C-alpha cells in the first residue's frame, strides 16, 4: 500500500485542528492503548543480529582466504612406471590458482628430501587471479616404498611474489611395486 490516503487524512486533520492518526496501520490493542509503536520489535532485533552474523562471516571469509589454492590429482594413465635403473616414476597433474592480485613465481619441491621432480618448468610463473595446470613426474628409488606406497608432501613455495602468496603443502601418495 502506498499510504497516500494516510498522509492526506493527516494533512486534513491538521488543518481542522484535530488529532492525526485517524487512518493508520495498527493493531486493535494499539488502537485501544493509543500508543505509537517504536518500530523496533523483538523480531527486528533478531533479524539485525542474524544480518550482522552473516556479514561478519562473509568478511572473515574474504579477509582470511588463502591466496594460493593447490590441488593434485593422478591422471588416468598407469599409476607408476618402473624405470630401467630400478627407480619408480609417478605422474601427477597439479592445478594452481592464484586468488590474489599480484603475480607469483612458485617453486615445487617434495618433503622429505631424496625425491626428484621432473617437470617442464620449475619455478612456475602464475599471474594474479590466474590458473595453471602442469604435469609433474616424481622419481624415487623403489626401496622407500612400504607395501607399494609412500606418503610425501608436495610443497608449493613462493619464490618471488609482490603480494602475500602463502606456502601450500599437499599430501600425496606415491605408488610402486609391492616388494
Polypeptide structure, described:
There is one protein chain. The chain is an alpha+beta fold. It has three helices and nine strands; from the N terminus they run H-H-H-E-E-E-E-E-E-E-E-E. The longest helix is centred in the first third of the chain and has 22 residues, at 42-63. 13% of the residues are buried. The mean pLDDT is 87.
Helix segment count? Answer: 3
Weakly predicted, low-confidence segments: none
Q: State the share of residues found in helices, binned by percent.
A: 10-25%
Given helix and strand content, the structural type is alpha+beta
Question: What amount of the residues lies in strands?
Answer: 35-45%
Number of strands: 9
Order of helices and strands: HHHEEEEEEEEE
Give the assembly state of these chains.
Answer: single chain
List the helices and strands and how they pair.
Blueprint: H1 4-15, H2 28-33, H3 42-63, E1 68-73, E2 81-82, E3 87-98, E4 104-111, E5 116-119, E6 124-126, E7 131-141, E8 149-161, E9 168-175
Antiparallel strand pairs: 1-3, 2-3, 3-7, 4-6, 4-8, 5-7, 8-9
Keywords:
179 residues, alpha+beta, 9 strands
What's a concise summary of this model?
22% of the residues lie in helices and 37% in strands. With 179 residues, the protein is of the alpha+beta class.
Amino acid at each position: 500500500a502506498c499510504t497516500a490516503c494516510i498522509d492526506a487524512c493527516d494533512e486534513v486533520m491538521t488543518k481542522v485542528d484535530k488529532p492525526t492518526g485517524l487512518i493508520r496501520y495498527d493493531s486493535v490493542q494499539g488502537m485501544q492503548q493509543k500508543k505509537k509503536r517504536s518500530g523496533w520489535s523483538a523480531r527486528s532485533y533478531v533479524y539485525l543480529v542474524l544480518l550482522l552474523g552473516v556479514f561478519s562471516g562473509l568478511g572473515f571469509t574474504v579477509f582470511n582466504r588463502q591466496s594460493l589454492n593447490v590441488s593434485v590429482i593422478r591422471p588416468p594413465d598407469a599409476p607408476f612406471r618402473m624405470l630401467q635403473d630400478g627407480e619408480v616414476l609417478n605422474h601427477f597433474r597439479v592445478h594452481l590458482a592464484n586468488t590474489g592480485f599480484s603475480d607469483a613465481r612458485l617453486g615445487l619441491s617434495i618433503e622429505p628430501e631424496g625425491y626428484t621432480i621432473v617437470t617442464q618448468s620449475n619455478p612456475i610463473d602464475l599471474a594474479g587471479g590466474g590458473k595453471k595446470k602442469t604435469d609433474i613426474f616424481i622419481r624415487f628409488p623403489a626401496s622407500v616404498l612400504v607395501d607399494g606406497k609412500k606418503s610425501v608432501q608436495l610443497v608449493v613455495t613462493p619464490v618471488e611474489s609482490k603480494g602475500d602468496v602463502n606456502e601450500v603443502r599437499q599430501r600425496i601418495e606415491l605408488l610402486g611395486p609391492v616388494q
